[in-house]
Every structure is written in C-alpha cells, then in structure tokens.
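Continuing the series of single-chain predictions for the mutant panel. This is the parent chain; the variants come on the following pages.
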Amino acid sequence: MPGRPKSKLLKRVSLTVDPVDYMAIEQLAKQSSVSASWLIRRAMKEFLERHAGEEFLEIPFGKKDED
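Parent structure:
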C-alpha cells in the first residue's frame, strides 16, 4: 500500500482453507514461479488496496459456497 513503510519483519498468520482452493493456489504459484505464501500475500495486498478508505465491507452472509 502506498505510504506504508517497508518492514523486514513479517507477521505469521494461520488460516484454514478449502483443500481444493489451496491446490489451485499451489498450482498457480508453481506455474508463476512464486511461493503459495507470496501469492496469498499479493492477493491480500490487492484486496486491501481495492477497499482502502471504505468504512466497512458489505459481506454477504449465508452463502454456503463461500464458507
């Protein structure tokens, strides 16, 4: 994100994902010559940039396929 100081220290995050989604991330990462962790960090950064300045997110609850 612009204006954010670069830090050499990263925070470790643990999350649980659907095995099929993780396999897709691993495959895409391998095809792109990056790690799955790098790809997930990049996706998080893009998400944060897309929603920068928003007060809250509209989160559609109740969809079974997005658990």
